[in-house]
Amino acid sequence: MDIKIYNTMSRSKETFKPLENGRVGFYQCGPTVYWTQHLGNMRAVVLADLIVRSLRYAGYDVTFARNYTDVGHMTSDEDTGEDKMEKGVKREGLSPSEIANKYVAVYEQDVTDLNTLSPDFKPRATENIDGIIEMTQTLLDKGYAYTTPLAVYFDVSKAKDYTRLSRQKMEDTIKGAGGGEVEDPDKRHSADFALWIFKAGKHKNALQFWTSPFRSPLVSGGEGFPGWHIECSVMSKKHLGATLDIHMGGIEHIPVHHTNEIAQSESANDAPYVNYWIHNEHLLVNNAKMSKSEGTSYSLAEVKEKRYNLLALRYFFLQAHYRSKQNFTWEALDAAQKGLDNLYKQISILGSKKGAVNEEFKKEFVEALADDFNTPKALALVSKLFKSDIANADKLATILDFDKVFGLKIKEVAQEMSQEKDIPEEIQNLVTERETARQNKDWAESDKLRDEILVKGYEVLDTQTGPKIVKK
Ligand code: AMP
Ligand code: ZN
Question: Which CATH number fits domain 4-280: 3.40.50.620, 1.10.10.60, 3.40.50.1000, 1.10.630.10?
């Protein structure tokens, strides 16, 4: 079946045709690793995961790349403001690479807890400086870029149809960008953006810098660091080629970051950059984007502290289409947790025998996903499936098949539940008592019960999907 994707470039749903039959190159802009990512960032990661899983479910061989930005990203996407990595350094008294390593590790743990599939490539900007210098040099050689004492800039007036992704008027963009903050008097247009920033001017004390072939009277050896936008152009090309099938990112990236990626890549490579642009909407708090700077962000650690199953958050994200805004409240997460618990409970009464995938349900499932990845519609099929009169074994097989996309660990839960059927009632009761103690944060009682269970020859493991009992 054809998959329809809403392409931001055409503002319409298009039939997906990959460059190479059966294969997809997929790139997602990754996090700037200077701080813990919030639930809004996590929504973006889960939404990309759902799309990658849907494409794989549909039979495509997807190569998925997502970068780590560990240099060059300012607090404003237009190169103004403070350097994000340096902000992390000041906050914690660590070096830039220690900050990056720390937050890459936090991120990796978070996205694993959300059961997202690891990308095939996870390049770091600092490991791609040579490629960045090379593309910048190409842009200079071809006349798309120019050098000032402070930076090498891309000249947006030279790009072919610079604003075609955002559909802004070129005059507005050139006048409007940069927040009116003139930081370099030699910059030709305010929308020109930095490819390479010299270790000079306000960046003279930059902590991360490399030598380069670019020249400024203010530094020796062209010392400096890359601009944020060029990083994605270089890393996506390295792993997926000059033309990508799909590029995904948050909607805020349309007017600046992705517009600049197109300008650089197409000018340097003489090839179309991206065939399908996918942009996800934001997670909101009180009707505004969840944001660290606004003080409206929550982390996954807080969700864990409140003792939610993290997959309840995944279930919550599944309930809204990627192009819809989604409002976060703790009540909404409670409801998602109940929905997930209920799903697991329904699975437990299906028995452990696996039959055949029901073709009619599968057809509806595929249709929902093929319509611009409509996961809420696909998820709604689950309750319809439970209510239907098809055999339990077939229900189980069908839902396990759907879970290749949902990623709610239904197979593990089904297995655990069937194993637990063989556990003596006495042990089950002790485990329930221990769970109650844990919920009441009575750790002493909970540890006591764990020991009691151990003495009787069983062990309780606290897993993401709840306590699991194993015979010793
Ligand atoms: P940043 O670390 O700020 O560059 O953001 C990393 C990713 O998270 C980007 O792809 C953003 O689009 C995304 N993002 C940031 N805030 C939100 C939000 N409230 N909802 C959804 N995605 C977000
Ligand atoms: Zn990017």
Answer: 3.40.50.620
Cβ–Cβ < 8 Å for 216, 222: yes
* Confidence at residue 181, expressed as pLDDT on a 0 to 100 scale: 46
Summarize pLDDT for 443-469 with one digit per residue, the tens.
Answer: 899 999 999 989 988 888 776 666 777
Question: What phi and psi values does residue 37 have, to the nearest 5 degrees?
Answer: -80, 150
The two tokens of residue 5 are 């994707």
Q: How far apart are CA 218 and CA 201, in angstroms?
A: 8
Atom number of ligand 1 nearest to Cα 290 = 19
Question: Quick one: which of 18, 45, 11 has its CA closest to 3?
Answer: 18
Measured from the alpha carbon of residue 232, the closest ligand is 2
Separation of CA 14 and ligand 1 centre (Å): 25
Q: Is the CB of 290 under 6 A from ligand 1?
A: yes
Quote the crossing angle between the two packed helices 39-57 and 392-406, to the nearest 10°: 120
Query: Residue 12, SS3?
Result: strand
**81 contacts 32 by C-beta, under 8 angstroms:** no
- Portions of the chain given CATH number 3.40.50.620: 4-280
DSSP, res 257:
I
Distance in angstroms (rounded) separating the CA atoms of residues 132 and 148? 18
* pLDDT band at residue 254 under the 50/70/90 scheme: very high
User: Quick check: CB of 88 below 6 Å from ligand 1?
Assistant: no
The predicted-structure confidence for 382-426, as pLDDT tens digits, reads as follows 999 999 999 999 999 999 999 999 999 998 887 777 666 677 778
Neighbours of 455 (CB within 10 A): 8
Whether 31 is in the pocket of ligand 1, judged by its Cβ within 6 Å, is yes
Half-sphere exposure of 272 (CA within 13 A, CB side): 12
Record the pTM. 0.89
CATH code linked to domain 284-420? 1.10.730.10
Q: Yes or no: say if 377 and 406 are a contact pair by the CB < 8 Å rule.
A: no
What is the number of the ligand 1 atom nearest to the C-alpha of 292? 16
**Site to substitute for ligand 1 among 32, 39, 41, most atoms within 8 A of C-beta:** 41
> Closest by alpha carbon to 378, among 450, 320, 334, 441?
320
